[in-house]
């Protein structure tokens, strides 16, 4: 689908493009919905094949952030930014100060934070140009540990749905992508006595996981067909496609990656097979909870307590799926849309003027 057709059809509010040729900056900000509050979403840096691909990614991720905040019970809308650039580019300041100026042009409608290819230090550069940046050094910082904790909570709820017990002891978990979110997840899984299979395009990361957690290293292709109890996608999106489903052997899927379903029909197929699938934006909501806590001055303990509610939210999604006879990704959307509809429908009240 043409990305601008997607913009209109999916109900996005705003799409902003900005560039600064002097430093090689080309950025895109998508705002999906601000019913619940200002749009929050991280900035992703990636070398997209085309501008159309970058816009499509920003639109998908922004909509996901709307739903993620809604199901997490946060007063935030959904947005996302992408920068078309090498994520390993060493000269960061000019790039992110230019991005900060684009963020600032939206006057607080969009708040950014770190994402794939960015870091809290990059957000410090953004902050030089706008106050509308979070995930800063010395504050909530990197949201990955809380995100990993939230995925762990969703995984326990998924185990309960699949086997009647939320214990992960003795379960084999295939972890695809062993970045920062997966590290936090694997720490908790290993503590619980789970067995880990790991795969990543970065051999150094898998070697570290093997040394630290006793994980078994698997090829990046073989991980998708590995014999395991739980498959955990934690890399980039669209993992669950036709090829993946053809070789899938896990009865449960739960991970931290965004946009895991390549197409909705793949979620339908998971439901048809009876595979327990924890929808991505439900499971990985810990990151946005962490940032929300920073914006509201919460201590770290309160953010983790809020993230622990992902267990109950995941359980509610499974209950809605059973009640309505729909796949879990549809059930999660219904849970989010119900909250958005309630807030949109609130009656407006006149505010008395203080003029005499």
The name of the CATH architecture of the largest domain is 3-Layer(aba) Sandwich
Kindly report the name of the CATH homologous superfamily of the largest domain.
NAD(P)-binding Rossmann-like Domain
CA-based gyration radius:
20 Å
Q: Strand tally, please?
A: 12
Strand content: 5-15%
Would you write up a description of this structure?
- By secondary structure, the chain is an alpha/beta fold.
- The protein folds into 2 domains: 3-63 and 76-127, Rossmann fold (3-Layer(aba) Sandwich); 144-339, Rossmann fold (3-Layer(aba) Sandwich).
- It is 46% helix and 15% strand.
- The protein has 14 helices and 12 strands.
- It has helices spanning 3-9, 51-71, 93-104, 120-127, 144-163, 180-191, 203-213, 242-247, 264-273, 280-283, 286-295, 300-308, 310-324, 328-344; strands spanning 14-20, 25-33, 39-40, 43-46, 77-84, 110-111, 172-176, 195-199, 216-217, 230-233, 252-253, 276-277.
- The strands form 2 sheets. Strands 1, 2, 3, 4, 5 and 6 form a 6-stranded mixed beta sheet that branches.
- β11 (252-253), α9 and β12 form a beta-alpha-beta unit.
- α1 runs parallel beside α2 and α5 (144-163) packs across α13 (310-324).
- It is globular, with a radius of gyration of 20 Å.
- The N and C termini lie far apart (56 Å).
């Amino acid at each position: 689908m043409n990305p601008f057709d997607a913009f209109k059809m999916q109900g996005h509010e705003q799409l902003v493009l900005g560039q600064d040729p002097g430093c090689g900056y080309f950025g895109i900000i998508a705002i999906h919905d601000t019913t619940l509050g200002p749009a929050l979403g991280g900035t992703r840096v990636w070398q997209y094949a085309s501008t159309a691909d970058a816009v499509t990614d920003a639109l998908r991720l922004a909509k996901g952030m709307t739903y993620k905040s809604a199901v997490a019970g946060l007063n935030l809308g959904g947005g996302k930014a992408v920068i078309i650039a090498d994520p390993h580019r060493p000269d960061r300041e000019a790039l992110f100060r230019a991005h900060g100026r684009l963020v600032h042009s939206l006057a607080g409608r969009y708040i950014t934070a770190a994402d794939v290819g960015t870091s809290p230090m990059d957000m410090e550069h953004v902050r030089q140009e706008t106050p509308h940046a979070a995930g800063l050094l010395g504050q909530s910082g990197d949201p990955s540990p809380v995100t990993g904790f939230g995925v762990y909570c969703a995984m326990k709820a998924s185990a309960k749905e699949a086997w009647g017990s939320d214990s992960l002891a003795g379960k084999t978990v295939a972890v695809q992508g062993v970045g920062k979110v997966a590290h936090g997840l694997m720490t908790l899984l290993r503590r619980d006595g789970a067995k880990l299979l790991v795969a990543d395009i970065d051999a150094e990361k898998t070697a570290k996981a093997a040394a630290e957690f006793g994980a078994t290293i698997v090829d990046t292709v073989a991980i998708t067909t590995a014999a395991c109890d739980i498959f955990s996608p934690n890399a980039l999106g669209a993992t669950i496609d036709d090829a993946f489903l053809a070789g899938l052997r896990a009865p449960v899927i739960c991970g931290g990656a965004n946009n895991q379903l390549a197409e909705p029909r793949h979620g339908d197929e998971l439901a048809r097979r009876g595979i327990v699938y924890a929808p991505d934006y439900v499971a990985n909501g810990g990151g946005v909870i962490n940032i929300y806590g920073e914006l509201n001055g919460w201590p770290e303990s309160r953010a983790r307590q809020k993230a622990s509610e992902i267990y109950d939210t995941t359980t509610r999604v499974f209950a809605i799926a059973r009640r309505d006879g729909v796949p879990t990704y549809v059930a999660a959307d219904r849970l989010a849309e119900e909250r958005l509809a309630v807030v949109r429908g609130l009656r407006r009240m006149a505010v008395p003027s203080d003029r005499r």
